[in-house]
């Protein structure tokens, strides 16, 4: 997580520290486990779906091949400037606001945690509809409560009501919608991210102090993850969620 107000030096040192934690990703021992687990659940919604042409927009380092059947033909597309920070290069470079893909040529479009980083996001949703075959499906996830990340290219947060209106206006019918999290686990994850930002700032100012501070911060994050476990399945406050995952069908 990069704070919108962090200096480049702070962000770089924080990124190095977080990379060392990647081995723990997907487990309760990682400080961002509470939000990351929902991103993983969104991707699992693709598992076992029918094969066909699939466009993964804003692919980054993602690899959907393990989730999809052997007949799936995946095109990974990313924007040149933002893709530079990833290890994996896409199949195609392009702008999501003007996809370099023919009309009605894709069976599915995957758009996970992307449109918050595009100022003219409504154009992206319309482009997804254009390239889908009639009845084709858009798999979309967006944040609601989450700190600024990948600054300065972070522009939007989405309520479920706004998301429904945007998709309807673009010519999509929502088949499935799930809002991720509840007020307890969102609060605990935000506390973890605030603590990580504290370490990032310390690393930027005095590296050794930052490393010493990282030890109690990591312990506190682990305790927060453990405290959150009994609340993971509760849905008592859908107004406080990390974000939303949608499967929407292109109307004919």
How does the major sheet shape up?
Answer: 7 strands, mixed
CATH topology of the largest domain: Rossmann fold
Query: What is the CATH-assigned architecture of the largest domain?
Result: 3-Layer(aba) Sandwich
Order of SSEs? HHEEHEEHEHEHHE
Total helix count? 7
* Helix amount: 25-40%
Number of structurally distinct domains: 2
Low-confidence stretches: 1-5
Based on CA atoms alone, the radius of gyration comes out at 19 Å
Mean pLDDT: 87
How much of the sequence lies in strands comes to: 15-25%
Tell me the overall shape.
globular
Provide a descriptive summary of the structure in words.
With 252 residues, this protein is of the alpha/beta class. It has 2 domains: 1-30 and 183-234, no CATH class; 37-181 and 235-250, Vaccinia Virus protein VP39 (Rossmann fold). The protein is 38% helix and 19% strand. It contains 7 helices and 7 strands; from the N terminus they run H-H-E-E-H-E-E-H-E-H-E-H-H-E. The protein has helices spanning 8-20, 33-44, 80-83, 121-131, 160-170, 183-205, 207-228; strands at 53-57, 73-78, 92-93, 106-112, 132-143, 172-180, 243-250. Strands 3-2-1-4-5-7-6 form a 7-stranded mixed sheet. Helix 3 links the parallel strand 2 (73-78) and strand 3. Helix 1 crosses helix 6 (183-205). It is globular, with a radius of gyration of 19 Å. Residues 1-5 have low confidence and may be disordered.
